[in-house]
Write a structure and sequence with these properties.
Elements: H1 5-12, H2 22-37, H3 57-72, E1 76-79, E2 88-89, E3 92-93, H4 95-104, E4 110-113, H5 115-125, H6 132-157, H7 162-182
Parallel strand pairs: 1-4
Antiparallel strand pairs: 2-3
Helix pairs in contact: 6-7
Length: about 200
Amino acid sequence: EHPNKSKICNIFEKKLLPKFSDEELIKIYKEGETRYKDKIPPGYNDKDKKPENDKYGDLIIWKEIIEYSSKEKKDIIFITNDKKDDWVKDGSPRIELIREFYEKTSGKNIYIIDLKTFLFESNKFLDYNVGNSKLETLSSAMTSIEEAEQSSEISNIDNSSSATSTSESLTNTELLETCIEVKKDPINLDGTSTST
């Protein structure tokens, strides 16, 4: 068991969306077949990389976000470090995603950004001062993870991925610990922070 498991559970307690039913998932899988064949984002890059229905993970997340926004009538900030071109093109979110979200949520907006950008920007606009040293630590950890992932892709071709897997695991742990430290006070979505 990971030593930070209880801290992570406390952060996300009562903040997870309900799961789709089996019937709803079957519909998403069928829609996913068509979307992926036509390269409609998100998730089509996983078509040949993941087994069976696992390849529809990104699409399931996308559907959950749309459903939540429609139900709650809220704009969404979606934080992801996925930089594959079925989410991002030329450094910006795919326009098809922005358009689909707007249409299916009756005019709501979605902002798709990575974790590092979110923390730096929220530090500017929310009444919540993370501190530059912690943000720099996070930025360094994120860079290490990205480099490890790129090395892993190269070394997988050479069938020698064990060293990079260890490196990636260490940087993921560093990132996790930094995020937990940054998230020591809960942030309210009304733009204020609270201390416990």
